[in-house]
Amino acid sequence: DPGRTDWADRLLPLLPAVGRVELVTNDAAKIDPLRTAAEARGLSVRVTSPRKGAKRQLLDICGRNLEYRTLLPPYSD
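The structure corresponding to this sequence follows.
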């Protein structure tokens, strides 16, 4: 389903061009397209779980926590 990776293509330009990035999510499998694309660009990617009790999906870029509510778009399997 190509729609599943469109959001990753939109998010990729927000990531730094070089260095390391941490993606914070409660479902690592769903962000695989973004992780794969970032690693293909030469980024070092670490995927972590949100802190207990955290209710937002966060995209942590260069040490800044940016709320990105569309990081994990709702779709049905």
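Residues 3-67 form one domain.
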